[in-house]
Every structure is written in C-alpha cells, then in structure tokens.
Amino acid sequence: MVLGIGTDIVEVMRFDSWAQGPESRLLKIFSVSELAQCRTPHGEYQAEKLAARFAVKEAFFKALSATLCNLSYTKHTFSLMFACQHVQINMTEWQVPVLMVDWPAFEEKIHQILPKLQVHVSLSHENLMTVGFVVITKI
C-alpha cells in the first residue's frame, strides 16, 4: 500500500559552487559515504552526483511528510535538514540507488512508532537537470 510519494528536480549547475565549497558544508547534508560516491578519481566533487543525491533527499522528505499525514502522525514535525542527516543514498553494484533510512531517529523525532515501511527510489539525469523520485509503501 502506497503511503507517500515525493519528487524533486534540481538544476545541476546550482551544485557547481557546492562541489567547490568546503567539505564541512557538504557534511551537513551528505554522509561521508555519499561524498565518496560523488568524488572523481582526482578527488573533485561531481555537481551532477551531488544534485542527484540532494534531489532524492528532498523527494524522501516530501514522501515521508505525505506518509505521516496519511498515518495521522502530524503532531510533531521534522525539517529537511534533519531528513538529510538521517537518510543515505547507496548504490548497488549495478548502480541502482538504495535509500538507507535511520527509522529510529525519525520515530524519536516525531514521538511515534512507525509501521514497517519500504522506500523505493529512483534518480535520473538529463543534461542540466536531475530528478529524484521516492515512493514509501507499508509492508
């Protein structure tokens, strides 16, 4: 049963300055593992990969917000920044994105026990744009 969906589209060039900026700023949004996935062999960050991961995190924020509304868990809220710090995009060996969610952190933040949820994620790039799409289902 689908409880929430979210999508986000961003311009890659918006992340050019992020790729050049200090790593301390990036670590507020991305995990060490995510940043490693976004580095070239020369150690530079790829704006396209940063943009895609940000779009997925924003899409997750929207999908989880919809999920909580559908479950009537709206008394306590959380921010996009909180969501960014408690989800991590990993890539399988076939380069399929998987979203790892720290569910206990979200349950503590909203003061609710969540049902078993499954997160489905997709991301895509096209020239100057990237999109993230997330669906949350109840298991």
Topology:
Layout: E1 2-11, H1 16-20, H2 23-26, H3 32-37, H4 47-70, H5 80-85, E2 87-91, E3 97-101, H6 103-110, E4 117-126, E5 129-138
Antiparallel strand pairs: 1-5, 2-3, 4-5
Question: Can you characterise this structure?
Answer:
- With 139 residues, this protein is an alpha+beta fold.
- It has one domain (2-138): 4'-phosphopantetheinyl transferase domain (Ribosomal Protein L22, Chain A).
- The protein is 38% helix and 29% strand.
- The chain has helices at 16-20, 23-26, 32-37, 47-70, 80-85, 103-110, and strands at residues 2-11, 87-91, 97-101, 117-126, 129-138.
- A three-stranded antiparallel β-sheet has the order 1-5-4. Strands 2-3 form a two-stranded antiparallel sheet.
- Strand 4 (117-126) and strand 5 form a beta hairpin.
- The longest helix has 24 residues, at 47-70.
- The termini are close together.
